[in-house]
Amino acid sequence: MIGKLTGKISEIFINSIIIDVHGVGYYVYIGKNGSLILGEERSFHIFTNVKEDEISLYGFATYQEKEYFEILRSVQGVGNKLAMSIIGDMEIPELYHSIRNSEHSRFYKIVGVGKKIAQRIINELKEKDLPLPICSYQDNTPKFVNLGIRQEVSTALISLGFGKNEVESVLNNVLKDLDISEAKIEKVLEMCLKKIRG
């Protein structure tokens, strides 16, 4: 079974590519191709789908995208094609956030996802132990903040004697307004302290 491929992109199609690995061209289905360039060398984590008459390869930029693809295809009515469309349309932090917060309407925006499928995705996955995204999604903004920063700042504030609920509330407010380029531990901690102390 193929777990990962690294090679040069020799062909780019709408939802797939051919990646040349030492002279062998692998046809790989992908969810996103907007950032791909012909001739560049790229690595993809691979999910291998084996049927009686076909072996299909699905490629992902990160291992976590592959994880969520496998989780999505476990939902009744969500096949490989639809799971790939969802991964291609949503960043993993947003997908995690939408499932956890039962945001059905976000799934309606994806071609092929109707009301029943959206409900199944949320109903079947909401209470599951989903992999924690590498970054966290902030409501109503396109910003993604490293969860390590959030955790470290939270731990620091709690160790200073502030309550957990107060810390979480302040962190949410600070991260929502923070420019992603300023998302450093020291900067976030300083802004949180200012808000807490008034």
From TrEMBL:
Alphabetical keyword list: ATP-binding, Cytoplasm, DNA damage, DNA recombination, DNA repair, DNA-binding, Helicase, Hydrolase, Nucleotide-binding
All residue ranges annotated as the Holliday junction DNA helicase RuvA C-terminal domain in the record: 150-195
Main location: cytoplasm
Domain DNA helicase Holliday junction RuvA type: 1-59
InterPro entries documented for this protein: DNA_helicase_Holl-junc_RuvA_I (IPR013849), NA-bd_OB-fold (IPR012340), RuvA (IPR000085), RuvA_2-like (IPR010994), RuvA_C (IPR011114), RuvA_C_sf (IPR036267)
Keyword Membrane set for record: no
Subcellular localization: Cytoplasm
Region feature Domain III, mapped onto this chain: 139-198
Record-level Gene Ontology MF annotations: helicase activity
Keyword ATP-binding (UniProt): yes
Residue ranges that the Swiss-Prot or TrEMBL entry lists as coiled coil: none
Role: The RuvA-RuvB-RuvC complex processes Holliday junction (HJ) DNA during genetic recombination and DNA repair, while the RuvA-RuvB complex plays an important role in the rescue of blocked DNA replication forks via replication fork reversal (RFR). RuvA specifically binds to HJ cruciform DNA, conferring on it an open structure. The RuvB hexamer acts as an ATP-dependent pump, pulling dsDNA into and through the RuvAB complex. HJ branch migration allows RuvC to scan DNA until it finds its consensus sequence, where it cleaves and resolves the cruciform DNA.
Family (UniProt): Belongs to the RuvA family.
Domain notes: Has three domains with a flexible linker between the domains II and III and assumes an 'L' shape. Domain III is highly mobile and contacts RuvB.
NCBIfam families on file: ruvA (TIGR00084)
Assembly behavior: Homotetramer. Forms an RuvA(8)-RuvB(12)-Holliday junction (HJ) complex. HJ DNA is sandwiched between 2 RuvA tetramers; dsDNA enters through RuvA and exits via RuvB. An RuvB hexamer assembles on each DNA strand where it exits the tetramer. Each RuvB hexamer is contacted by two RuvA subunits (via domain III) on 2 adjacent RuvB subunits; this complex drives branch migration. In the full resolvosome a probable DNA-RuvA(4)-RuvB(12)-RuvC(2) complex forms which resolves the HJ.
Protein name: Holliday junction branch migration complex subunit RuvA
Species of origin: Candidatus Cyrtobacter comes
